[in-house]
Write a structure and sequence with these properties.
The complex is a heterodimer of chains A (196) and B (128).
Chain A (H helix, E strand, L loop, with lengths): L9 H14 L5 H14 L2 H13 L1 H9 L1 H7 L10 E5 L4 E6 L8 H4 L4 H4 L1 H9 L1 H7 L9 E6 L5 E5 L11 H5 L4 H5 L8
Parallel strand pairs in A: 1-4, 2-3
Chain B lengths: L8 H5 L23 H15 L5 H18 L8 H15 L5 H12 L14
The chains are: A mainly alpha (196), B mainly alpha (128).
Chain lengths: 196, 128
């Protein structure tokens, strides 16, 4: 027997919730499945990597991207929930951007997919604001003291994505080759794009 | 900061249904998106409810923020953290607060499912 005070298996709770909503015609199973599959398989950081690679190779696109992230990202077909108000932050040799959502875990789904577990973790959300340099060091990114770190807290209005610096030695790379170098972590700001 | 006008949540969600085609690139350099099937189910239910216009995403987000804040206040060590637990709880609260599913109905359905014979699917930790 399961009493009311016992913690219930979340699998059972979600099954109860979904089955009631489906029985009442408020939802259908296929739509749930479509969303899950979309985010498991189709939407992910490769979208953001394409945006970055295009910005690296096309100065006009880069300018549009920095002026209106949502529109420029939309040009490549990436839009949807959590990507309505995109702001793209450009790293330079002296400014490094890093993104967090301190209150929950807002994240730019259309360009990066769903957030990794560390992004949702209470420790990351609290600490990256207080001691960003140390947190980045723990990610393996040791920035010079002369580099200013700017931490951006996502809000209900804005989703951020970092435009990392293009690594040296990639002058002759094609856009597709460049995109393959760009990692999710670099677009959140906890890593740089490594030279090939 | 100015934002592009328009683009209601509901309209934007529709695009997703078209984006799962064969041209879509595979997910890469990430980890598993969901740690367990129930997590993906909880995610999908929330998205589908929003897509159907049954919940407002900002309401859900507020509910999630509160749930996460409560959890963190109750667990200063951070041990036992599960993001989708908070997600599921805020979803449960929201559907009952908005009257989509009464809390009592939800409890009754859980009890019904929990009472299924063993081997149907769920494990039973507490057998009588």
């Amino acid at each position: 027997m399961t009493s009311a005070s016992e913690p219930l298996d979340p699998a059972l709770r979600v099954e109860a919730l979904a089955s009631l909503l489906i029985d009442r015609g408020l939802l259908d199973e296929a739509t749930i499945e479509t969303f899950v599959k979309t985010y498991e398989q189709s939407v992910g950081p490769m979208n953001g990597a394409k945006v970055v690679a295009k910005a690296w190779t096309d100065p006009q696109y880069r300018a549009r991207l920095l002026a209106d992230g949502t529109a420029a990202i939309g040009e490549l077909g990436f839009k949807g929930p959590q990507g309505e108000h995109m702001v793209v932050l450009e790293d330079t040799p002296v400014v490094h951007h890093v993104v967090v959502c301190t209150l929950c875990s807002c994240y730019p789904w259309p360009v990066l997919g769903l957030p990794p577990s560390w992004y949702k973790d209470p420790a990351y959300r609290a600490r990256v604001v207080r001691e960003p340099r140390q947190v980045l060091r723990e990610f393996g990114l040791d920035l010079d003291d002369g580099v200013e770190i700017r931490v951006h807290d996502s809000s209900s209005e804005v989703r951020y994505m970092v435009l990392p610096e293009r690594p040296a030695g990639t002058e002759h790379y094609s856009e597709a080759e460049l995109a393959a170098l760009v990692t999710r972590d670099a677009m959140v700001g906890v890593a740089k794009v490594a030279a090939p | 900061m100015s934002h592009p006008a328009g683009s209601g949540d509901h309209a934007d969600a529709a695009y997703l249904l078209d984006s799962a085609g064969p041209a879509a690139p595979p997910r890469d350099n990430g980890e598993l998106v969901f740690a367990a099937p129930w997590e993906s189910q909880a995610f999908g239910v929330a998205l589908a409810l929003q897509d159907a216009g049954r919940i407002d995403w900002e309401d859900f987000r507020r509910s999630l923020i509160r749930e996460i804040g409560d959890w963190e206040a109750a667990h200063p060590s951070g041990e036992g953290w599960n993001y989708y637990e908070c997600w599921l709880r805020s979803l449960e609260r929201l559907v009952s607060a908005t009257g989509l599913v009464a809390a009592g109905d939800l409890r009754a359905r859980r009890a019904e499912l929990a009472a299924r014979p063993d081997g149907h699917d769920h494990r039973h930790d507490h057998e009588e």
